[in-house]
Structure formats: structure tokens, C-alpha cells
């Protein structure tokens, strides 16, 4: 019989709906029952595409013996961390504090008043390799609960207070941050850079695109001819190239897997997340903007192809993820089964000639090159990865690069067609406002940089869906939509990331409705999330569910912190509109936690906001008819420059709405033909109508900024 999770909308909770465990979703009913029956709460947190969540479900939650213990002695509560990131963030802080690490599945035992006294991650049915099992853990905790209640309650109180002190005791710096903090962040990243394999740190290795976005800005700010600028760009290019060649990239169907289990990007953890696609697309797009290397543009375009093909709903919104696991040839769930190839698979699919070529190109081996993440044993399967790019491969094989690329693409299409016959991984088809905001930002940014209006159209379609479906009548956002039902009051990231996307949409299209909506949502965010006493923004709204602690998050994780994105948004909106009070909001965020200056490497998205704040930053207006050739010529000059700290307006002859939003543009008019106005550091250059003159102005201002920095 299905349990209570059968009535929920989350794909993750529905995966557990037929467990023999008497699961509750996160709700007051569960905690009322725990209080009434005097039982501890067993909280399990995961997400639909989490491989080890599937393993724990199969080993423990589908097991009748484990279920009997859970149902008899606990009130079991299951949470989808993607639906309730506030609950996840709070208890992940507990787990990391108690164990020194975190991850999913996350297991927390707590009192009926939600105070934790034990935490961990994955637990098998029976203990092994020093890890306790559910059959040992659950009876022990139940016995302690009955025999030593005061001790358990005291421990829960102590842990709660320690977490509360740690999360709420972050003092504001009270001092403005300056460019020296950017230099510290750069040096910390440089010290962690893997010069052999790209990326930062060892295994497992995560993409962390916001690190790369920061380094691109440092390269541009310092100048790529300087030691610092050249080194920053080198770290970016080596990392982007290594990831694109590695097994973390899906060479048959495009898109990036979640992370690499080794330090050389070869063997991935196979789930694909929407937020990774969005943030990595932004990184590759910006790398192209700075370097004009077409390889980066092509990778971004292939990411968008994957998202459009496999992660886009009929309404134009974006689904959340694809699972790591799928059915193998024996009909059993296996991590990576959809993506890996045996030697015989390759030869049978491609034939002897192309098969031999593919084996050499993608480093396949007869015994396989893929090792199981847990046992590290070879599985007989191969992950496709490359050790050289097309230019190096062409030199090695003595084949012109063009024909080589055509042959590689032909092989890819054959592999893609063969793979399409396999059972697909589970699609997590919920729509999340925050992750959709990131993809809107990625598409709109690429629409501008690549001069590709179709990407702006896709971004606009998704944004319209969110604003029509995920917004209430009073202007508040909702967090999750799935199969006709929107719900869950939005958190900080939902507002911050969607505003980011809307700003990028305005910069790509110059349609004032996007700027107006960004301003409205930003104001709603500040009204419900800002800490007016100490600065910064809370994760949850002032009228959201009251958890043990109302948290603020500053550190970047797999995605940037909402505070960092909000700081940059407010700086950009302030410059776009001339509303200086929005820049003041950003400055309060930058000064609201002393950890930002102490550990800037953990706050690289906040460093991007700081880089905008300390400058150089540009305010640029082009006055002209949108479809006219002279206007397009000036816009093309702007598009040809990497301008991460610029805001741009297009003022047409019908500029009433723009003037209402940005009054300072009223005086920036066409002077006979299309005219560009460029300002930086509160000073403006002479208006210009000539593309070459505009190009020189941008170059001169960049050089002045470098000298000043």
C-alpha cells in the first residue's frame, strides 16, 4: 500500500511512496505525532537523481526489517532538498558540524520540537567498513531515547545552540571591501589550481563555474598582457578545455555531468543538473567573449542543444535534472548504464573502421576504463573521454582539422542514435524558479554575446512561464511547479536568480518590461528577506515557515549564494536606473559578514559583485532606431568587447518607458544618426557616432581602469 508520500508532487518523494516505511512529508502533522507518541523524528533528505539515495532506499527503506524498526520507534519524515532548500541547508549545517562532512542522502535524528541530536549521511542495512547500519543504529537510538531521555534532550539543546550561534553569530565587517580582497581571492584560487588537470583541488572535482567567472573578470580587469591577467585566463582556459575533453562532458549527447570522481575529469558521477548546464554555459559564453575562441561558443551552443532537447517542457520552462542511474542490459538499475560503452558496443555500433577510430579517440579499453565509484573496480564499461582537442588530434593523425571534425561528429551521431534505444534515466520534471532563473540568464547572455535572437526567445518563453505560473496575484513568487500545480513559498534564491535572468533578458533585448519586472521582484525580495538591522538577506522570507534558525547564506556551493547574486543584481539595477539606494543595498550585503573578507575564495560570486563595485564599470547608452544599420553597427562594437561590468541601454525614438525607468537617459538622444554615450567612474566620454571611435573609447577606458587598479 502506498504511504503518505503518494499524495505529494515531488519526484523524489514519489520514489519512496511504496516503501514499507510509514513516511510523512515535512509537515506539522508528523511533529505533532512525534510529540503525542513521544518518539524521535527520523529525517531523511535527498533528491530524485541522487545515486546514493537510491542505494540507501533499496538497501534500507525497501527492507521490511528496517521499516518495522522505523515505524515502531520513530516518526519517519522524508524531504526533497530541492523543494525545501531551507530545511536542507539548516540540517546540512548540523550534519557538517557533527561529522565533518555532508552530502546526500542526509540522515538526521531529532526531537519532536525539531532539535537534532544525531546526524549522518548514507547508512546501509547492516554495518560494514566501520559504518554503522540501520539495524544497529535504530535499536540503539530507541533504547537511548527511553533510558536516557534527559541526556538526549540535553545533547539536542546543546547542538541546536551551537548551530544557532554559528549561523547567527556572523558579525558584519562594518568596513567597505576593496580591490585587495579581489587580489586575495585570486591568490587563493591560484594556490589551489591543478596545473596538470585544470580545476581546483583534488578528487572529487566539481566544476564551480563561479570561480571561472571571477577569474575571467580578473583577467579583464588586470589585462591579459599582465602576469596576473594572463595567469587568470590560463586557469580558466585549461579548466574549460579539460572539462570539455573529459568524461564529465557527454560526448554523445552533450551537456555536463554533475562532477568528476577523479581529479582529471575522466570518470563522472553521471547525473545531469539544470543549474550546472546554466552556469557552465555562462562560463563558456563569457570565455568566448574575452578570447573569441570558437571552441567555447560551440560548447555553450551544445549545452543549449541538450537543454532544449531533453530538459525543456512543452510550455518552455526547464526541468530539473536527469538521474545517474538507469536500467542496464540485464534490466537492473546501474549508475551510468545509459552513458557507458563496452568495447563490443562501440565496434558493433560503428563497424571496424569507425569503431577503431572511436576507441583510440575516446580512450576505450577492452577491459573497460570505468571504475565503480564505491569499489574502484573496473566494470568492463568505458566512459568516453578525450585527451586532446581537435587541433592536436588532427596534427597527431595527419588529418586536416575540418574533415576530422566532420568524422568525429558523424561518429557522435551514430553513438547518439544507438544510445537512444536504451532505457533513459529518470527525468526529474519539476520546474524550480531559481534554477530556471539561471538558465534564463545563460540563454539571454548568450543571445547578446553570440547575436543569437533564438536564445533570447527561449529565455523569454521560460521567463513568461515563471511570471504567469509561479507568481501569485500579490506579486510573490512560488518555488516549485510540477504537472499543473505550483506551490511552496519562494526563497531568496528564487528571487535573486530570476532577477538575474530578467536583467540579462533586458540587456539582450532592451525590452523595458524585463527591466521593470526585475525592479519589482527585487523590491519584493528586499521587503521580505532583507535584514535591515545587520545587512544581508535571509534565506527564507519574513512570513515563511519558522525553522529553528532563520539563516543567511554567503558561501557559494554548487550554485552561487543568493546574497552574492542579489548584491550584483542591486549594483546593476542601481546603475541601470540611477537609483543609488539599490547600490547602497549591495554595499550593505558586501559588509554584512566578515567571512567574505576572511575567505574570499569561498565567495567568488560575491567577488564578482565587489569587482563591479570597485570598478571599472561602464554605463553605456546607444541612441538609435533598433532595426537601423547604424544602430546595429554600434551594438556590434559593444558585443565584440568583453564588458562584464557594463550596463547597456538602447534608447530609441520611442523611449518614454525607458526614461521613466532610467531618467538619466532622457538627455542621451540621437544626434542625426545613431549615437553612443559611454561613461565610467562618474565621467563620460564625448558622444560618438562612429563604430571605430566607440571601439577606441572602450579600449582606452579599459586601459585606464587597468592602470588605476
Fold and architecture overview:
It contains 26 helices and 19 strands. It is globular, with a radius of gyration of 26 Å. 51% of the residues lie in helices and 10% in strands. β4 and β5 (116-120) form a beta hairpin. It is an alpha+beta fold and 709 residues long. The chain folds into 5 domains: 4-168, Glutaredoxin, CATH 3.40.30.10; 202-326, Glycosyltransferase (Alpha/alpha barrel); 339-421, no CATH class; 454-612, Glycosyltransferase (Alpha/alpha barrel); 618-708, Glutaredoxin (3-Layer(aba) Sandwich).
Strand content: 5-15%
Helix content: 40-55%
What is the domain tally?
5
Distance between the termini: 67 Å
Total E-strand runs: 19
Strand order, sheet with most strands:
1-3-2-4-5
Biggest pleated-sheet summary: 5 strands, mixed
- CATH superfamily assignment of the largest domain? Glutaredoxin
Extract low-pLDDT stretches.
704-709
CATH topology of the largest domain: Glutaredoxin
The helix count comes to 26
Mean pLDDT: 93
CATH architecture of the largest domain: 3-Layer(aba) Sandwich
Computed structural class: alpha+beta
Rg over CA atoms, rounded to whole Å, is 26 Å
The coarse overall form would be globular
Class of the largest domain, according to the CATH hierarchy? Alpha Beta
Properties at a glance:
709 residues, alpha+beta, Glutaredoxin, Glycosyltransferase, 5 domains, five-stranded mixed β-sheet, four-stranded mixed β-sheet, 26 helices, 10% strand, globular, disordered C terminus
Amino acid at each position: 500500500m502506498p504511504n503518505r508520500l503518494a499524495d505529494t508532487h515531488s519526484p523524489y518523494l514519489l520514489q519512496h511512496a511504496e516503501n514499507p516505511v510509514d513516511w510523512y512529508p515535512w509537515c506539522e502533522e508528523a511533529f505533532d505525532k512525534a510529540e503525542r507518541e513521544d518518539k524521535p523524528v527520523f529525517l531523511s533528505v535527498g533528491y530524485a537523481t541522487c545515486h546514493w539515495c537510491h542505494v540507501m532506499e533499496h538497501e534500507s527503506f525497501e527492507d521490511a526489517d528496517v521499516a518495522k524498526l522505523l515505524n515502531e520507534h520513530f516518526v519517519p519524515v522524508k524531504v526533497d532538498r530541492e523543494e525545501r532548500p531551507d530545511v536542507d541547508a539548516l540540517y546540512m549545517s548540523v550534519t557538517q558540524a557533527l561529522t565533518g562532512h555532508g552530502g546526500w542522502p542526509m540522515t538526521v535524528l531529532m526531537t519532536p520540537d525539531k532539535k537534532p541530536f544525531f546526524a549522518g549521511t548514507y547508512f546501509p542495512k547492516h554495518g560494514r567498513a566501520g559504518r554503522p547500519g540501520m539495524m544497529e543504529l535504530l535499536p540503539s537510538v530507541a533504547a537511548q531515547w527511553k533510558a536516557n531521555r534527559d541526556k538526549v534532550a540535553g545533547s539536542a539543546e546543546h547542538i541546536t545552540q551551537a548551530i544557532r550561534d554559528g549561523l547567527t553569530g556572523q558579525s558584519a565587517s562594518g568596513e567597505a571591501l576593496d580591490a585587495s580582497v579581489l587580489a586575495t581571492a585570486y591568490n587563493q584560487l591560484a594556490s589551489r589550481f591543478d596545473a596538470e588537470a585544470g580545476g581546483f583541488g583534488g578528487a572529487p572535482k566539481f566544476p564551480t563555474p563561479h570561480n571561472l567567472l571571477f577569474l575571467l573578470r580578473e583577467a579583464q580587469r588586470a589585462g591579459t598582457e599582465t602576469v596576473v591577467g594572463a595567469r587568470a585566463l590560463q586557469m580558466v582556459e585549461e579548466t574549460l578545455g579539460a572539462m570539455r575533453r573529459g568524461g564529465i562532458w557527454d560526448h554523445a549527447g552533450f551537456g555536463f555531468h554533475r562532477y568528476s570522481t577523479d581529479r582529471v575529469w575522466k570518470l563522472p558521477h553521471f547525473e545531469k543538473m539544470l543549474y550546472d548546464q546554466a552556469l557552465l554555459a555562462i562560463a563558456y559564453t563569457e570565455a568566448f567573449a574575452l578570447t573569441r575562441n570558437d571552441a567555447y561558443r560551440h560548447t555553450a551552443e551544445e549545452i543549449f542543444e541538450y537543454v532544449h532537447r531533453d530538459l525543456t517542457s512543452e510550455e518552455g520552462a526547464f526541468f530539473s535534472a536527469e538521474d545517474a542511474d538507469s536500467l542496464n542490459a540485464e534490466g537492473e538499475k546501474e549508475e551510468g548504464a545509459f552513458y557507458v560503452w563496452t568495447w563490443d558496443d562501440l565496434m558493433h555500433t560503428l563497424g571496424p573502421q569507425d569503431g577503431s577510430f572511436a576507441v583510440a579517440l575516446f580512450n576505450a579499453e577492452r577491459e573497460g576504463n570505468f571504475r565503480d565509484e564505491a569499489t574502484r573496480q573496473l566494470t568492463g564499461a568505458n566512459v568516453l573521454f578525450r585527451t586532446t582537442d581537435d587541433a592536436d588530434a588532427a596534427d597527431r593523425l595527419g588529418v586536416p582539422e575540418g574533415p576530422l571534425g566532420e568524422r568525429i561528429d558523424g561518429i557522435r551521431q551514430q553513438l547518439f542514435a544507438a544510445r537512444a534505444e536504451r532505457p533513459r534515466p529518470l527525468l526529474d520534471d519539476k520546474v524550480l524558479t531559481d534554477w530556471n532563473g539561471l538558465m534564463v540568464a545563460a540563454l539571454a547572455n548568450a543571445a547578446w554575446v553570440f547575436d543569437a535572437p533564438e536564445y533570447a526567445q527561449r529565455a523569454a518563453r521560460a521567463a513568461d512561464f515563471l511570471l504567469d505560473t509561479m507568481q501569485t496575484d500579490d506579486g510573490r513568487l512560488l518555488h516549485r511547479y510540477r504537472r499543473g500545480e505550483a506551490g511552496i513559498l519562494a526563497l531568496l534564491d528564487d528571487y535573486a536568480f530570476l532577477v538575474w535572468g530578467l536583467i540579462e533578458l533586458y540587456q539582450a533585448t532592451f525590452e523595458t518590461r524585463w527591466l521593470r519586472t526585475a525592479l519589482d521582484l527585487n523590491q519584493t525580495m528586499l521587503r521580505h528577506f532583507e535584514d535591515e538591522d545587520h545587512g544581508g538577506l535571509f534565506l527564507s522570507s519574513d512570513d515563511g515557515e519558522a525553522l529553528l534558525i532563520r539563516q543567511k547564506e554567503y558561501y557559494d556551493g554548487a550554485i552561487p549564494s543568493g546574497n552574492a547574486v542579489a548584491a550584483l543584481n542591486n549594483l546593476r539595477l542601481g546603475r541601470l536606473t540611477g537609483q543609488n539606494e539599490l547600490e547602497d543595498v549591495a554595499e550593505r550585503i558586501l559588509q554584512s559578514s566578515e567571512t567574505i573578507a576572511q575567505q574570499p575564495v569561498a565567495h567568488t560570486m560575491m567577488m564578482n559583485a565587489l569587482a563591479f563595485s570597485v570598478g571599472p564599470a561602464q554605463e553605456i547608452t546607444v541612441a538609435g532606431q533598433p532595426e537601423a544599420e547604424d544602430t546595429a553597427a554600434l551594438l556590434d562594437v559593444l558585443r565584440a568587447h568583453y564588458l562584464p561590468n557594463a550596463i547597456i541601454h538602447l534608447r530609441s525614438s520611442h523611449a518614454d518607458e525607458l526614461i521613466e525607468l532610467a531618467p538619466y537617459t532622457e538627455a542621451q538622444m540621437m544626434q542625426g544618426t545613431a549615437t553612443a554615450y559611454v561613461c565610467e567612474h562618474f565621467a563620460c566620454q564625448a558622444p560618438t557616432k562612429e563604430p571605430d571611435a566607440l571601439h577606441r573609447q572602450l579600449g582606452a577606458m579599459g586601459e585606464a581602469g587597468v592602470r588605476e587598479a
